Amino acid sequence: MIFSKFALLDFCYMNKTVLITGATSGIGRACAVRFAQGGYDIILTGRTKEKVAAAEKEILSLCPNIETYPLIFDVRDKEAAQKAVMSLPEDWADIDVLVNNAGLALGLDPEYEGDIDDWETMIDTNIKGLLYMTRLIVPGMVRRNKGHVINIGSVAGDAAYANGNVYCATKAAVKALSDGLRIDLAHTPIRVTNLKPGLVETNFSNTRFHGDNARADKVYKGIKPLSGADIADVAFYAASAPEHVQIAEVLILATHQASGSVIFREE
Hints:
Blueprint lengths: L16 E4 L5 H12 L3 E6 L2 H14 L5 E5 L5 H9 L10 E4 L15 H29 L3 E5 L12 H20 L6 E7 L6 H5 L4 H6 L9 H13 L8 E4 L15
Parallel strand pairs: 1-2, 1-4, 2-3, 4-5, 5-6, 6-7
Helix pairs in contact: 1-2, 1-8, 3-4, 4-5
């Protein structure tokens, strides 16, 4: 493992709690597994009880010594998010790490032909959902004078690519919001990290193409993409760094990807 030099620190994180949004699949689920392996108790959030339960089952089978707590809600729903967070029992309420992972891309059309419903879903999830969770969790971190926010951004937030328009804009917002929060918290020991993955083989492309598996598979053709576990390793590394070290931003690309739009594919 790339960050194995931090393995001995895993035991120092017993009894810490991480809340991960969108923890039922992809990067979010991989983060749940990695943090559980590091000794964190896990608050898993997702929109459906069945998927959250499946994630819990996997994590507890791998890491039987940690505890999990399910929260079923959609981050786009401000009232539901507030109700869910406020429902946490006292012994789960002190969250050490917030991983704002929930997010998605929908469609790959020119901006002037885009689906407005897709736009609203991306904006509500990728931006407003992240803001809701930040507003709900970070005040507690400030009161306790400790904590860490890890936002899952994207290489798409650095520069727009063809037909990426609104998705790229939402991830540029994640970068700006991460930078702004880091500035707002500079007088505290709370750290803010923005992770910016490139090609990661999850259900991301399947979602973007509304279940068109054949089209989704072409995204990863000719290149070995990153995995959710690769991103989870970086997230855990950031959380495991010494308290005086803030991993502010990390761009994570597959070896043959140079940017959001420059990818070398083998024939």
